[in-house]
Design brief:
CATH superfamily of the largest domain: Transferase(Phosphotransferase) domain 1
Largest sheet: 6 strands, antiparallel
Strand order of the largest sheet: 1-2-3-4-6-5
Structural class: alpha+beta
Strand content: 15-25%
Number of strands: 20
Number of domains: 4
CATH topology of the largest domain: Transferase(Phosphotransferase), domain 1
Distance between the termini: 81 Å
Helix content: 25-40%
CATH architecture of the largest domain: Orthogonal Bundle
Radius of gyration: 27 Å
CATH class of the largest domain: Mainly Alpha
């Protein structure tokens, strides 16, 4: 048993045990040479007698020491003390991300996304060095006094990989975040870290892990077999774009999961910028991350949030110009209203003006509702807002539905010639139908387009045979990967 006050490596004096796991214990220690606190991880003696485990610990200690990243806890030293391997880390004051979730429950959406970005960036650094963490969880994320997330325990869990989940005398740790392939004892790759990060993000957003059971093995098997509970049902204000990221990150099959953590981080950065634009403000670590977004995602966020000092100067200049400009704007500007085009109309066509309440969801073969409160977001002229379907893990057929959809009321009868839509979930199949009253089932509508595999920006030609219709329906019959489709913007042209 390690005694408090012991010198490790003849230099670091142990002061207090601050954590313990299946293969090691962590102590706060004092380094008299540099007069600073450090954290020391000591491998358990029973494991250190195994030559294979010992060699893996040494090899991975060297690998972790190569990481130099602001969101990775820095390795200061490593060695052995009377045959017991140890690693010396920077000592991070603060709390773990798990502690923060326990105190606050679900975190503010922007803060959760910001922490996921910082954890993802740490994983990017590790993966670039061909190092897989294998134990991504909130307990291994430290929040420093400045609010920054720093990941620890990189690569150390790998030394227990061969023992599997049920090996006697070996505890891998909580399985709340374990990937399906890891639970089954299959090869663990960078995509396994992505899955675990997706579960961490889910917990930050909802305040709880997705699966619970009486034993860790039972929890692990739920990760293998059961669909992830819908994050939007547990927290409805979460955007469809963020929910889609969670779903893709936690896909059971690796072929449906993000291929790289870089792709995941990029999507999270876009969502953070969009969330900031929608709310008009951010706080805490979300503000810090927002101000350091790369160029290809920074443009999604308002400049005043990314560059507050510059925004202040611009505000002063703007106030000076307002007096002379007000008459001009009053006579020349046009407001972007509901249904306003988000891009110029196609040549030879004109936009059908839609009222703000012109869009409605359509679910005649289910409970009669399909994200009803979001319908108007599909025609508000804003690509950052969205209407989406519910999540159907088994597809629409698994729910005994031929389709679901969204229709618009043109207010008067028109012979529409084209329907344009924007989506962030391309790949689903849909067709356009028309009617002059809203039928109780799809058979009451007239099909006016071919069934189309929808792209991100899709123009669907319509053929009404010169008939005029008041209602136009986008009828979705086949969902993309993830079991959910969305419409960010819809426009009807004649």
């Amino acid at each position: 048993m390690t005694v408090i006050g012991t010198l490790i490596g003849g230099r670091f004096r142990l002061e207090e045990r601050i954590g313990s796991g299946g293969m090691s214990s962590v102590y706060r220690a004092f380094d008299p040479m540099l007069e600073r606190l450090v954290a020391i991880k000591l491998m358990h003696r029973d494991i250190s007698t195994d030559p294979d485990q010992l060699e893996r610990f040494r090899r991975e200690s060297r690998a972790v020491a190569r990481l130099n990243h602001p969101h990775v806890v820095t390795v200061i030293d490593a060695g052995e003390d009377e045959g017991t391997p140890y690693i010396v880390f920077e000592y991070v004051e603060g709390e773990t991300l798990k502690d923060r979730i326990r105190r606050h429950g679900r975190l503010p959406v922007a803060e959760a996304v910001a922490y996921a970005i910082e954890i993802g960036r740490a994983l990017e650094s590790a993966h670039a060095h061909r190092l897989v963490h294998r134990d991504v969880k909130p307990q291994n994320v430290l929040i420093d006094p400045d609010g920054r997330a720093k990941v620890t325990d990189f690569g150390i869990a790998r030394s227990l990989e061969a023992q599997r989940l049920t090996a006697p005398g070996r505890v891998l740790g909580t399985t709340d975040y374990v990937s399906p392939e890891q639970a089954l004892g299959h090869e663990v790759t960078e995509q396994s870290d992505i899955y675990s990060l997706g579960i961490v993000l889910y917990e930050m957003l909802t305040g709880e892990v997705p699966f619970k059971a009486d034993t860790q093995v039972a929890v692990a098997m739920k990760h293998v077999r059961e669909p992830l509970p819908d994050v939007q049902r547990r927290r409805p204000e979460i955007s469809a774009a963020l929910a889609a990221i969670v779903e893709r990150a936690t896909a059971k099959e690796t072929r449906n999961r993000y291929a790289t953590v870089t792709d995941l981080v990029h999507d999270l950065e876009e969502v953070l910028a969009i969330e900031a634009a929608r709310s008009g403000q951010t706080t805490g670590e979300a503000t810090t991350v927002l101000r350091n977004l790369p160029g290809d995602t920074a443009d999604f966020a308002p400049g005043r949030l990314r560059h507050p000092r510059r925004a202040l100067v611009l505000s002063v200049l703007l106030l000076a110009l307002v007096g002379g400009a007000v008459t001009y704007f009053a006579t020349t500007r046009t407001e972007k209203g509901a249904g306003s085009p988000v891009a110029p109309s196609s040549p030879g066509l004109t936009n059908v003006e839609l009222a703000g309440n012109a869009a409605s969801d359509y679910d005649p073969e289910g409970d009669g509702e399909e994200s009803r409160g979001q319908a108007g977001l599909a025609i508000d002229g804003n690509r950052t807002t969205v209407w989406d379907t519910e999540t159907y893990q088994g597809g629409l057929a698994g729910s005994n539905k031929r389709g679901v959809g969204l229709y618009v009321d043109a207010d008067t009868k028109v012979a529409a010639r084209q329907l344009d839509l924007v989506t962030s979930t391309p790949g689903y199949r849909a067709a356009v139908y028309a009617a002059n009253t809203v039928p109780g089932g799809i058979r009451g509508w007239t099909k006016v387009s071919a069934t189309t595999r929808v792209r991100q920006d899709q123009k669907i030609p319509l053929d009404t045979a010169q008939r005029r219709f008041r209602y136009y329906l986008v009828w979705i019959t086949n969902l993309p990967e993830g079991g959910k489709a969305d419409i960010r913007e819809l426009r009807l042209e004649k």
